[in-house]
Design goal:
Blueprint (H helix, E strand, L loop, with lengths): L2 H6 L8 E5 L3 E5 L4 H11 L5 E4 L9 E11 L9 H12 L13 E10 L5 E4 L6 E8 L12 E7 L7 H4 L7 E3 L6 E5 L2 E5 L11 E10 L3
Antiparallel strand pairs: 1-2, 2-10, 3-4, 4-5, 5-12, 6-11, 7-10, 7-12, 8-9, 8-11
Length: 222
């Protein structure tokens, strides 16, 4: 197989499967083949991460670790684009209807940031609205995770209301949030204006980080 054929071949694992889905989110398991995921997890451990305070609630959320931010066109890949990035782009493109953006891949970009959440950290409820965002994704890259360690992604499968700016207002929501556990090699894609939060990572996680590649799907501006 020549290089051109290899780059044109899908990066997504042929055995990837939809674990669950709602009106505004989808959960895809086993995104990459095992060898590609191992390479992705190993590469993540070499990324320099710096502590940053939460922009949602810096007092109670605590700090997480972040490694840079890159922006790429959704519909284009470079020759050296990592397999995980290709697979994420493939799945976002395949689910543009979920983001209310069918047929618009050529007009969209996504950001890519590495995040590590240590024991004691969380991210409060927010909806990722504004700045041209139409959606977001979370790809879990730790090699192992236990449900006792917390760090779940909670998502309200409804459009966020003007009066639902914080956790107190969400108590009166007509729906219960979906709890998506941080399973390794799991990708979550969801629409903007959807309230979501990261549960606090429990002390039983020890020195293990909840590791993700995370970013926004945005409309390109002229």
């Amino acid at each position: 197989m020549n290089l051109s054929s290899l780059l044109d071949a899908p990066a997504t694992n042929p055995e990837a499967r939809v674990h669950s889905a709602g009106e505004r989110y989808i959960v895809i398991d086993d995104l990459l083949p095992a060898a590609d995921f191992e390479a992705t997890a190993e590469a993540f451990t070499r990324i320099p991460l710096k502590p940053v305070l939460s922009t949602i609630d810096p007092v109670y959320d605590g700090f997480a670790y972040r490694g840079g931010e890159e922006r790429q066109e959704l519909a284009r890949n470079a020759d050296d684009t990592p397999r995980w990035q290709r697979a994420v782009k493939e799945q976002i493109t395949a689910h543009l209807d979920l983001l209310a953006a069918p047929g618009r891949a050529e007009h969209l970009s996504l950001t890519l940031s590495a995040w590590g959440y240590p024991a004691g950290s969380r991210l409060s409820w927010h909806n990722d609205a504004g700045a041209g965002r139409i959606g977001a994704y979370v790809y879990f890259t730790h090699r192992a995770w236990d449900s006792d360690w917390g760090g779940g992604l909670a998502v309200f499968d409804e459009e966020s209301r003007a009066d639902a700016a914080d956790g107190a207002a969400l108590v009166d929501s007509a729906r219960h949030p979906a709890l998506i556990l941080p399973r390794p090699n799991r990708l979550v894609v969801f629409r903007a204006h959807t309230m979501h939060a990261v549960q606090r990572v429990d002390t039983t996680a020890g020195d293990r980080l909840r590791r993700t590649w995370t970013g926004f799907i945005t409309e390109d501006t002229p």
